Amino acid sequence: MKKQIILRSILGAGMGIALSYAITILISICIGDGEYYSCVPSLIEQFGTEINAVIVQLLLSAVLGAVFAGISVIWEIETWSIVKQSLIYFLIASVTMLPVAYLAHWMEHSIKGFLQYFGIYFCIFVVTWLVQYAIWRINVNKMNRKLNSN
Description:
The chain is mainly alpha-helical. The protein is 79% helix and 0% strand. The mean pLDDT is 95.
């Protein structure tokens, strides 16, 4: 399992960086003024230059991708209940996502900003979990039907 975590984390770091840049491109397209917005202005202000801010955002995106990919092994621990898997995954993901979002200035630096960001994060987590659960149930039901027909 440790080997899987390491391999997934290495791949996930690259995926985190790629996704981060895809998001900045999408945001720039949505703003629609022909400029590229590499990161939020407050991150640039904090780190003095745009290149410093972009490097920090790149590193934080790599960490985020690595952790999310690495903890995906939790879903393969068959001795754990779905509740235990979900809670541990959510806790590790949250303990990573929220500080990264704070450090990258993806949330307002206030209690209100934190609560709003956490609320959105939690809703996205729940919707994603429900969709995945529905897919798993459909696949299990298909396998059970095949087993019963044999």
